[in-house]
Specification:
The complex is a heterodimer of chains A (183) and B (226). Chain A has 183 residues and is of the alpha/beta class. Chain A contains six helices and eight strands. Chain B has a five-stranded parallel β-sheet, with helices on both faces.
Chain lengths: 183, 226
Amino acid sequence: MRITIVNGEPEAHSDFDRYVGEVAESLRREGNTVRQFDLRDMDIRGCTGCWGCWVKTPGECVQSDDSAEIRRAVVNSDLALLAAPMRMGFTSALLKRMTDKLIPLVHPYITFEGGEMHHFKRYDRYQLMGLLMGADTDTDTEDIEITTEIWSRMARNMKTRLAFAAVADREAEEVARELTAVA
Amino acid sequence: MSSLLLLNGSPRGKSANTALLLAQIAQGWENVNEGEIETLHLTKSADFERATKTFGEADVVVLGMPLYTDGMPGLVMKFIEELAPYVGKDGNPTIGFLVQSGFNEALHSRHLERYLEKLARRLGCEYAGTIVKGGGEGLRQMPPSWTRKLFGRVQRLGESLAREGRFDAELLRDVAGTERFTRWQAFWVGLFTRTPIGRMYWNGQLKKNGAFADRWAAPYAKAAER
């Protein structure tokens, strides 16, 4: 399976960063093709809400930065694993800045799904989504629940579903096995 | 008399629909309170820095934002990370929030609302509530007759904030509007959104940019690479 890891850890060599690396290695040992993006080393400019990706250059962000490479990898994989440490009860701003820029993957037109307004799809197929959270010293179960809930909603709006969500407190190999099973 | 700090977390800055709604809160506040009002736009780095420094000095803070992929915009999360030093401090301000989304139903914003309520608790701030407004895209382009009722309500929310230190619950429900469409509503609205009139907002802009024919472009699809 093709797995894209979007790593929103701002600090290189932190415990969580090492953990993400271990998960990636274990995933490879399980026979997956893994591509990892470390957002901290990339030029990702924040979404400005200009809607250029919908009305000027459909499907593509008008800013030329490294986000295009990530969008391409994400939509062409079987599973995109979003990984980030928790900060103030949510996954890092570094990760959110990038995922705001996944909006070109969907269409501005509205459709109804499950009685709710959602975007039209732009691609024939979408990858599954996974979430890996690194607990902070003050992280509690409510934070994990709220964060998982927001990312499930996001996955749904991005024409997919959150197939995996976990806190980085288990063996990396175990996480890799589970991910391989869902992807 | 107390001071109000309005923080505009929209990446569109001053020209944002969020800024327009925050201005209504300011208007309402002014009607009943003589305290100082300051508005800062988090897109501007000087404003962002000032907001992190003066957060603790205001009596009341309202942080407004558009819903971005079902959560806060990255810019707002960056700001929230900067608030870490205020956790558990004495004398933190009362805090309220405003979340507006393009989707019509309020339900899309409720998960973020839950996060924001927890954030207020985490900071040790009195929680004034969260204004949730669906269908907020294009507010700026609407004629005054379309927005009068909404703006009046948001102004009264500003008044209740100034008077009671929290947003009035009934007004919050009125502003939120439709929580979830009934099956019939979903059916009719669903049909409407597939008609040319229902798609006019986007089609008009696509045509203006000469991009209408490309509107279904899928630039990363495998077939497109050949």
